[in-house]
Amino acid sequence: MTATASTERRDPGRRGDELALPPRYRHRTLILAVCCLSLFIVSLDATVVNVALPSIGRELHSTIAGLQWTIDAYTLVLASLLMLSGSTADRIGRRRTFQVGLALFSVGSLLCSLAPSVGWLVVFRMVQAVGGSMMNPVAMSIITATFDDARERARAVGVWGAVVGVSMGLGPLVGGALTDTVGWRAIFWINVPIGIGAIVLTALFVPESRSARPARFDPAGQTLVIVLLASLVGGLIEGPRLGWSSPGALGLFVVAAAALAALVAVEQRRREPLIDVRFFRSIPFSTSVIAAIGAFGANGAFLFLNALYLQEVRGMSPFEAGLWTLPAAVATMLVSPLSGRLVGSVGTRVPLVLAGVGIGAGGLVLTTIDVTTPLWVLAVAFALFGVGFGMVNAPITNTAVSGMPRARSGSAAAVASTSRQTGVSLGVALAGTVTGASAVASVGADFAVATHAMWWIVVGIAAGIIAIGFVATSDRARRSVEGIAPLLEEPAAA
């Protein structure tokens, strides 16, 4: 599915030896920069849109549920298609898939800027997400294929990770400034010229590559994943409006449960499944998926609720709200590289425990907020949360692939990436449901107190991450990895 999971096959005239490449393909740093451009605009888009949500709601006369769908439509489609896009790129060519993704993301961004209603905005966000699913995972495959030396590849991946922190730091400020001065539609305009430039640079400087043995398409598994995620998140968002005991709400949860059961049954019988359920026999892998869903769910709720609280309750402008959430983004940006070094030096337990402590401490402070909470208290809470969130990504990724055969590490990492996006979707949906915001058109002064229940849930998630730090590194966990390794080797060698 990914470059790490397969032997590379280059286009005619290209070999693994860099000297065989045409001159324009030898600029590996430029190739890395082009790939990082895709990550930048996709990551920037998440925080930019959160800051603009209140302005979008007012102009398009949207309910809070509509704003939730504005976020979740994007993350749901992204989560559903990440693994399919990776295998498609391996089959038809990574550069080609990457360019199609850039084009779709740019067109989707332009359409978002023209949306006449929140319904159309949700649809156009889905177009964006289809493109986004072809960009970041495929760009990582391009990077892995381009940097053959392990040390250079590690540095390239480090740069890739740093771009996430930079985009998160700039997102609230850029989104707030554009929304204040030009309007919320401008947050989507900025993606268009960057996307077009990346398409041209990709055509000029990024060589084509494919997998010698791409994974087979799994239509049943792909369909069931989409049904599962859409029905579960849909039930959480629409439940307050429909009524939890209504046939509509109950029906969505029944469909989600049926889709999950069918997914497990179908994937167990496939030779090359979309999701290899045997991965979950590994305690480190299973706990990494749980931690990813929890941590990114907490972050999704954090961004969504604070955008509403700061602007609708505290009366801040979008730019001011972006400025006050900056401590979280900066803390994440600064701590993320430290987390990677800790994983390399002392393993995953310490950074996972620190991640749980940071997220939990931030959530605990936020359980006390009201309309008059001092801003310095908010800044401390945001910084603590940012430290915890910055700590969590590296150990999650490392734990997901720990002990996996090399040929299956790409598939394991893809499931972990899908778990992150799934977590964001669930976090946003749950935040609106727990606060009662999903059932109303706008929030009032009592919204601050209404968020307390969600912040207590975040504290519980943080406690779970701390527990995972110990469970995932236990002797039993190591034995579980050793037990499944022989099972996973055979399909890879077939």
Compile the SSE list and pairings.
Elements: E1 8-10, H1 28-60, H2 64-92, H3 94-113, H4 118-133, H5 136-146, H6 150-181, H7 186-189, H8 191-205, E2 209-211, H9 219-242, H10 247-269, H11 283-313, H12 318-324, H13 326-346, H14 349-366, H15 375-401, H16 406-435, H17 447-450, H18 452-471, H19 475-493
Antiparallel strand pairs: 1-2
Describe this structure in a few short sentences.
The chain has 494 residues and is mainly α.
Report on the structure:
The longest helix has 33 residues. Helix 1 packs parallel to helix 6. Helices cover 78% and strands 1% of the residues. It has 494 residues and is an all-alpha fold. The chain has a two-stranded antiparallel ribbon with strand order 1-2.
Q: What are its keywords?
A:
mainly alpha; two-stranded antiparallel sheet; 494 residues; disordered N terminus; 78% helix
Please give the share of residues in helix. Answer: over 70%
C-alpha-based Rg, rounded: 22 Å
Structural class: mainly alpha
Q: What proportion of the residues form beta strands (DSSP E)?
A: under 5%
